[in-house]
Each structure stands twice: as C-alpha cells, then as structure tokens.
Amino acid sequence: MLTLLKIRNLALVDELVWELGPGLIGVTGETGAGKSVIVGALKLVLGERAEKSLIRTGEETCSVEAVFELKDAADVNAVLEDGGLDPCDGEQLIIRRVIGQTANRQFINDSPVTLALLKRLGEHLVDLHGPHDHQSLLSVERQLSMLDAYAGAEKSVSGYRECYRAWREKAAELEEIRHAENASEQELDLLRYQLQEIDGANLKPEDEQDLEDRWRRASNASRLVEAAAAATAALNGEDGILERLTEVQRLVRDLEKLDPSIRERTASLETACLELQDLEGNLADYADELDINPAEAATLEERVNVIETLKRKYGPSLTDVLARRDAAAARLDTIENRGEKLETLERELVACRASLDTAGKSLGALRKKAAPKLAKEISSQLKDLGFKQSSFESPLRTLAEPGPQGLEAVEFQFGPNPGEPLLPLRQIASSGEISRVMLAVKSALADQDATPLMVFDEIDANVGGEVAKAVGRKMAALGTRHQVVAITHFPQVAAMSAHHFVVEKEVTAGRTRSRLYPVSGETRIQELVRMLGGGGEQARAMAASLLNP
C-alpha cells in the first residue's frame, strides 16, 4: 500500500507529508481547498506528464515522493529488471518526481528512470478513477481481460497467445514464400551478385582494425622513418640530449662529493638517463623494422578500399555488411527452393492453426462458463448501488477469424431501466451511472484485482442520499481487500472511511496554502456537519448517526 506521500511546492501546497494507513481513506474539504492537488500528485507518481505551471509561484521546483510497502514485489520487480534497474531488495519502493522550470526528473529507489518506465510501473501500483476516467472500463479489450481475470484464465490466455503468435509468424513466412514466386530474374541476378561480392572479400570483422593499422604504417613508411631518425639524432647525435646529460651527470657527481646529502634529490637523474637510453634504442630498432615495400602498401590499400566500398554499399560496419549477406542468402534460398519450402510451410501452418483452435476453444469454454456468473455478480453489486431493477449482461461474440485475445469478444451491456434495451457501456451518457457501474465491476473483481491502491476521485458525483451511502459501503468493502482513497463531497461516503482527512485552504503571511490533517471524534463530526450543509443539533445528530449507524 501507499504509506507516505510527500508534496513540496505543488500548486497551493508548500509542504505536505501524508502518512496513510490501510482500508478506506476518506478525503474531504470545501471546493477549491486543494483536494485536486493530491490527485495531481498521484498522477505524477503514475508517470503523467508535468507542466512547469504546477510549480508554486515564486519557487524553482516542485517535487512529489511516494513510498509504497509491497508484500509481493514480483510484478514490480519484473518491470524494474526489464528497465535495467535493480529489483527491490526489501518491501519498500520509493518513487520521486522533480518538476523544474527547464527540466523534469523522475527516480525509482534513487535511480533515474524514463517517464515511460514510471508509467509502466504505475499500472501495477495505483488504479485511479475520476468522474471521467472510465476509458479502461469502456474498452472491449479491457472488458475481456476483466472476464479472463474473473474466470481465472491467465494460463489459458498465455497459452493461446503463444499459439496465436506462432500461427501469425508462420502465416507471414508462408506469404513471403508465395511472393517469392513473383521474383524477377533481375532480383535473382542482384542477389547472386551481392553474395559473390561479399563472399569474395573474405571479410573478418575482428581483423579490420589490424588491417587499417598495417595500411597506415605502410602508406606512411617514409615519414615514419624520417621522424624516427630525427628523434634518434636528437637523443644521441652531436650535442644531443644524451651527450648533454653526460655533462649534467659529471656536475652532479661533483655536487655529491661536496655534499653527500644531496643524493636523495639527484637520484632520479640516473633513472632519467637510463630511460632515455632505452628510448633511443627502441626508436633505432623501430626505424630498422620499418620496411618500405611499395607493393605491400598497394596491396593493403586495395584491401582497405574494398572494405570501405562494401561498407558504403551494404552498411556502416562490417557486421552490417555480413548481416546483409545473410539476408540475401536467405532470400535467394527461399526463391530457388520455394516449391519444397511451400509444401513444408503449408503443413506447418495447418498444424499451427489446429493448435490455435484447440487453445482458443479451451479458453472460450472458460469464458462461456464465467460470463453469466460475472454478469450476475455485477448485477448484484449494481442493485446495492441503487439500480434496483437494472440489467447487466456480458454476451460473447464469436469472431470470424482468430484474434490476438481469442476466438471471441465480449462487450458489457447495461440497462438501468426495466423495459428499455440493454446498451453497451460506451453508449451510457450519465457519468453518475457509469461511475457506479465501474464501482460495481471493481467490487465484483476485487479478489482478482492485484492493484494494491485504488483511488476514487469524486466518482460519487451526481448521486445522493441512500445511493451515496451505498457507494460508501461498497468502497468500505473494497477497503477490506485493498487500500482505497476516496475523495468525496458526500458525508455518507466519508463516514464509512477507516481514516478521515480534511484538506483546508488558509492564508499565512499573505500567501495562500493548502494543508491536510486527520480528523476524529468531535472534529470529524464537525466536518460531517459542514458537509451536510451546516445547522444545529439536528445536523450534528445526523452526522453522529452516520458514524454510528
């Protein structure tokens, strides 16, 4: 769960440290107090793009830090390792975002990461829903995933996808073979020429650097000999460095006779003389080894030119040239032996399709068994949320061709009023209705949903009275299996929370800031009274009754 959220210089929040507990957490406050800042901070943790306009006026940066305690870090570690990061060595995961005037940065356990990786990780940590954040519920692909989760069909889905991938790859390979029948003689000639040209060069990438070094020495042999001879003469020629050092040695020996204590300071002279003598000998040997052979230089230059020509034609490196050679050889083999390959691939494709159909039927059987049960469970949840006479179905539709998700599709259908036809969820116009349907689906799938934190941002909008109370009960029930944060304007929902926090706006030293603090006891009753619209003892009694139904 999320145990700590730190916000600094984000919009109206100058500094906020929020420690969260388990269960349902209610967050209330007047409109404009800053409740949206909390949602915004969580969205930043989930990898949403940030604008510098979020930075509090007068500040250079803003930051958000979230600490998650993970009982099972397997999914999170898989994302981290895929992104090249170390897995969590404990149960704690720390995410930090820093938004600046010129650049934004994000960190996971103090390691810098990309925004894309943070977004992938966020999908395993938080499920956030606002009044208009129901795109995932409206997606037929997501609905099918929900049905599969309810059916416990994860292994069957994985097996089907492997069969589907193999079938598609085999079909693409067969299609390529069939296109090979249309290959022209011109293409065949080109492929044969490419193979002959590359093979004739007898390329060895590991020898390329040695070849270039040998060619460089051979082509510059005269200049190398001249430079080595000049350096040798400077060292050992008339009035050269070594001759002058001999005079220096004589003078130093005279100094040492007069003052033996100086020997520690002059000891390096002997070392320098020996090293310079070695250098002179090495340069002389190097000059003797340089063999000016114009024929060899020409041969090396020709070899280098061949390699550079191939690199210009087939790739920036010899590895690319050889890869091009392998591709040409494979294409030529496909064209020249297409008849035999065609028969083999057609048999393999039939076998792949048979495996796919078997896996698809097995998966479809699980879905057909689970679909009416899921629809019944969601209908029951909907009745608790005020849709007393509503209808909900999850009909399966057989696809004309196998799809990446199976042999069938599903689209949830909902009818809030008796006598009216059921419609797909995407055609429901009321945000209040779709919010409650989403809550019903989440409640039905609570045991299968592995996301540790659920955030509901005013999804109880456009409902009231007993329906709001039912929404609160449903969220509280979810809180027994997940950590749930509910940002709400309804006292019926806030009263159901295990922990209640209030967001309040205040003016200090001429600056407006938002603060968040927990309420309990009489302070909590006073907040519920405010939410009820204020009043005297009657409103207070009603608030108390909400806490003690």
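[next item in queue]
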Amino acid sequence: MHADNARPWTRWWWFASEIQEAQIDRDLEWLKANHFGGVEVAWIYPFNRRDTVATPRQEWLSPEWSEKVRYAKLKADSLGLGFDVTFGTLWPFGDTQVPREEATMLLNDSSFRQVLRLHWEHPRKGLVVDHLNEQALRNYAERMGKALKPALQSGTQSGIFVDSWEVEQRYLGTTGFMEDFRAIYGYDLEPYLDSLYVSRLPYQHVLYDYQRLISQLVIDEFYRPFSAIAHELGAYSRAQCAGAPCDILQAYASVDVPESEALLYEPYYSNIPAAAAAWTGRPKVTAEAFTCLYGWPADWMKREQTADLKLLADALFANGVNQVIWHGKAMGRTEKDTFFASVHLGPSGNLARELPVFNQYLTKVSQALQQGHTYSKVAVYLPLEDQWIKGEMPKEKQYIWAWSHNEHRYLQLPQFLQPYHPLWINANLLKEANVNDGKLQSGQTEVETLYVDANYLDTASLKAFIRAAQSDLKIVMQQVPQPPGLNTDTVGYQKLVDTLLQLPSVYRRWESISTGISPVVTGADLPEYWCRESGTGLTCFFAHPKTKTVSFPMGYGQSLMENGVSRPVKIHYNGHEVPVKLDFQPYQSILLHVDTQGAVTFEDITFVPETPKLEARPEKEKERWEVE
C-alpha cells in the first residue's frame, strides 16, 4: 500500500456483468471526492445471485476482462487512489478451471471436493483450490497472474489480497497427508478419524498432532507461496488469515500487510495481526471494517449510523489497526445494487452526509498510528497448543462461520497486563528475535519480559524459552506445562521443563517480577489504547471508554452518549512519570504525544457525528439474522 496513503480504502465489488468504463469512472471519482485512499477489487456473482441464467459479462480471465481491470488501475492511478485486487473470484481461491485432483479434499470422504459458490462464472460450478498444495496454488496463480499482469504492471505498485479462511476445516487433508502423518508422528491417523473431534483424551492429543501438521501445510504451502507469488507479479501481499487452522501469528507474519476483520471478529482479535506486524517490522495493519455491523448479514442496510461506525473504528485503532478498509462499495447499475453483508457506501443512505468528514477523521488517526513502531513492555505467549487441543468451541460461542478454538476468535490478552501494553508472540517469532541486555528485540519492538500461561507447550516452544532465558530475558511461567501430542517423549520433555524452570531469569508468578518492569500507562479502569514510538517520542491513542462495549452484533444506536467521562492516568516514558487527565467528551477519543522530555501535546481529532437514534432490531431483520 502506498507508504504515504493513510486514507481509508474500500472493498469494491464488481458484480458479474458487462463492466463499463463509465461505471468505473463514476465510482472512482465518487470515492476520490469522499476522501477514500484506494480500492480493493473483488469479483463476485451476478446481481441476482439466485438466477440460474448466465448473465452477460466479460469472460473470466479473458483479454476483455483483463482490459477492464487495467483500465480501472490506470484510472485509479490518475486520481491518486491505490488499487489492490483479490486474487480470485469471491473467496476462497478457486474457479471452474481447478481440476478435481487439485481441489480441496477431506480425509473422511474421498468423494468430497469443495465447491466454490456464487462466483463470477455463476451458475457454472467451480472448485476451491487445495490450500495445502503449493503446486495446485501455483497452477491456479499462473492463469490468475497472467490475466492480472496488465493491471499489476501498470503504474504504481498494487497488492494482491486473500480474504479470511473459508476453506472447509473438519477433516481437511491433501494428497499424501496420511502417509506424511504416519512418517512424522509414528502412528496411523485412520483409526482415530471417527473420533478426531471428541473432547477427551487421548483423542485431543491426536487432534493436536493433526492440527500441527495442518498448520505447517497451511503456512508452507499457502501463505508463504501466496506472498512469494505476489512479489513475482511485482505486487505486495495482503491477507486476512483469520479463521485459518494454523499458527495464526506465523501466518500473519508471512505476508506484507496483515489484515484483521470486524465485526465478525471482535475488536480485540486485531491484537494478533498487530503483534505479527510489530515483531516483523511491518508498518501497516489493515482491517476489513464494519462487516455485518448490526448482525448477520446486514441489518439496517442504508440506515447505518456514523456514530456507531466511529465507535467500532476507535476500538480497532486501540487494538493495533492503523488503516481502515471499508466493507464496502458495490459497482452497480443503480444504488439498489448492494452487497448482502456490508454497510452501504454510495450517494444514498445515512452515511453519505457525514462520509467525507468521517473519512478525514479516520485518516488523521491512521497517520498518527503509522508513525514509528509499536511500543510495549511485555510479550505474552499465544497459547497455541491449548487452543488446538480444545477442539470445538461451546455451542453458544459458535456461528455458522465459526466452530473451532483453533481460530483464536475469543482469545484475549490478560487484563491485568494492560498497563504494560502487551503483545502476543509465538515460539517462531521468539526464536527469530534477539535478546540484548535482557530485552527481547525484533523489528523495532523491544520488551522487557515474556509472560507464559499455558497448560500445554510443545518442545519447540520450550527450547525457544530456554534460549531466551539463557540470554537473561525474564520469563514468567504461570503453569508447569504438559506435553501435547500422542507419542511425545515424556522423559526428554520433563528434562526440558526442569532446565527451563531452574534458570535464574525464570519466575513462577507475575507478582515476583512485576515491580521490576516499567509500565506504559497506569490508572484505574484504563480505556483501551495503543502506543507507537518514534524519534520524537510516544504517540498514544486512547479510545473512548465505551469502545469496551463493542461486540458482535452492535445495537442500533449503541454509541449514544450524553455526558463526558474522565480517566486520570500516568504515562511512563523515557524515565518520566507523566500525569494526564483524559477528558473524554461524548463520541470523542483522545490522541496525544509525549516527547522525550515528558511534555504532553494533545492532537485535535475532534469529529462529532450526528446524534444516533436508538431503535430495537426490527422483527423481520431479527428473524433473518437468526435463520440465515
């Protein structure tokens, strides 16, 4: 993404139709006038997705199709707008040209191949490409890249994008998976398949071994090759790894621009891609924002309230996002053409009146949060092994698009560590980091200690902890870990545990170490916040305390507030303890800067949206949300 482009972008849906250059011009000029910074083109189904008739359209990946994409890229360039493309039609990756032997398959059903629904070629049936097979991905990318090259190699650099994981997960496999599993783990998976997701031992250890191999394949055969393919095409990679059955931090660390999603994921989920960006020195963390804001799929379409969107955006900023991708803008024949699961961007609807000034607000905050690097004092181990062993989430936590703990959907940083502005970390990122003078350093981020609260840890994690502790990094081990996996060498494992716990820089309780670690912000009932450090000092964004109420789905008018609220805090920076009174006016968050001498400057980010209206969910929309 353009380094100097902090303006919000939007997903731009191209419905399967005969795309006209006049449509392209109209939409891009409207977006420019409303202070957008760029677009992400997504090719989807015909306007009437239930129609079984082949709607006239440019043929998928044809020269005529490629020319329309190239035209749009050049038009965006002429307007100073960025231009990214989804690397396929709808999502996940696939089309009618994916051969059966290169399509997503399951271990428990040899006849299954995942069908790609509602794509550009609808009603023709396509298949989802095998995401555990790099060669299948590259075969798909060869024709996709050829069709996109005229656009990608014209003008400024573009990105290629992959949306959140929507590949079948239960019993996911690939050619040769069972043989590879046996070679790695020393036993056959076949006898356990019928009970793979049973939440009791020993099946949970088998599930762990299965998830570990799946994770390796997802990262090595999909996310890393995807990023390499983008570079080969002269582009950068941008990805939502949300929902992928893998080491999620490692997946996000594999791409150039990690992207979060809200509100189908809670705002605090954004801490995961933000942490991956911090440890790898990635400057931007984007978020697909406002998706299904009021419920599934899109309650109050065209009646959305800007104040509600601002509350969610501020929650995202306070959880590490520094650029918003609206979801989104439909390129339709008329304003009646909309995407089914989004807020509405266009000349009609509630948002149109305030859109330019709201986008200016989003830009100003994004610019501030893109400066320097993320500032933290404590790394927190993301308990990957625990999540994999747990298997299915409780029914009350599941949605039609979410079912497994391996998605990390509800994983939150410990609340008591909030004063230290903690960051998630995993064993691989820890292994790649440096420990100097007892401080963990990676990218430009530096922390003073590692906090671990996990019931299960694999040997690779233990070895990474030992190496760091031997270099004097302070580590808090809240639990004595157990070995995951069915055939783990328990004797060798226990030796590693004993070695780790006997090191002088390893502590068993947070209270034993907390007085020696400098906090970032202290105070009662701290608001959500994010901090970035640059050469001029520390920039802090404090979200209005009401962002803590944001959860899926938001209530219509949930942002309504009548009175201000204050939070006295102390900011600890560069040897200074700076008292600051955070006076939150209705609908306002706070952006401030602390210089290296401890002087505080408040930045004016005032944006007062129209007063929201409180309304109960209409019965018809409520019923639709519960049924679909």
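[queue empty]
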